[in-house]
Amino acid sequence: MKILVTVPEGPVRTSFFPPHVCARLEALGEVEYNTTGRNYTPDELREHLMGKDVALTGWGTGLLDEYVLEGNDTLKLLAHTGGAVTPVASDYLYDKGIRVISGNRLYAESVAEAVIAYALASLRRIPEFTQRSREGGWYEGEIWEGLLDQTVGIVGFGMISKSFMKLGKTFRLKFKVVDKPYITEEDKKEYGFETASIEEVFSTCKIISIHSAMTDKTYHMVNERLLSMIPDGALLINTARGPVIDEQALIRELEKKRFNAVLDVYEAQEPLPLDYPLRHLDNVICIPHMGGPTYDRRQVVTMALADDIENFFRGGELKQEISRTYASRQTSAKST
After folding, report:
1. DSSP run (H or E) holding 30
2. Across residues 47-73, what is the average pLDDT?
3. In sequence order, what DSSP letters do the residues of 5-20 get, joined into one string?
4. What is the pTM of this model?
5. CA dihedral over 326, 319, 187, 147, signed as positive or negative
6. Which residue ranges make up each domain of the chain?
7. Which residues fall within 8 angstroms of residue 200, CB to CB, at 6 or more apart?
């Protein structure tokens, strides 16, 4: 077996490919690493993929399209260390019968954990009370809340939503999910939620969590009309993609101080400009795009991919597989 690791040398590769992960891969076959210090150009990617059985890709790797794969009759498996595979897995790749796996499920677990943390931080006003204590103050009789038994509205139904709902059972959360054609009765039974219109979710839920992929159809899906429906005292969390929400409309609503928000992603540039309004609103917690995976989970992702690479060549089940249908619902390549 011949494996190409396209991730360039540097801190990111070290985090995903520490020595024990490299040893695991090298026990499976002959491994070639990208030694350029940068991501391959399409021409370089095409050249280095020739004769390889597995492509192990990462953030910034180019699309494996018809040009890159022209004349390549050996590649059998694409293993992507990222979550969404749309930046690397083309329709042409799927047409060739090349199987695709990624860290999506493990990323989802980590982001779901972040949603729990963000909700608790906001509801319990942890940043505010921590800062006050640091500055010599103390509790002054304010109202603060918890997560137990709350009703959560979810926009988007994928692996993150499913992981979040599993974790939410510990807190006895009740869930309303914006209805989609692909949601089945089995899904509702397994994860314990009811479906609702997006209007109902925004107008009735204490917590609203955005998990929708970024596509042409979801750009500014959460608009001023929906934001105006959010109940006073509610909490909006976005760990999906910034442009799913009309950010200028969101700022206008947040300036009214009716509800709170925790934002991990932004439509404006990242990092946010120092004078950007979201940085200065006291009903907003701005997280610098750190929802997941946490640093310690990166090597867990590559080890899981290594397990699936071994499973693939032994004819076993691929636990991290991303089907073409599922990939079509992920964030589009141009949005990543």
Report:
1. strand 30-33
2. 98
3. E-SPSSHHHHHHS-HH
4. 0.91
5. negative
6. 2-103+295-335, 108-286
7. 153, 176
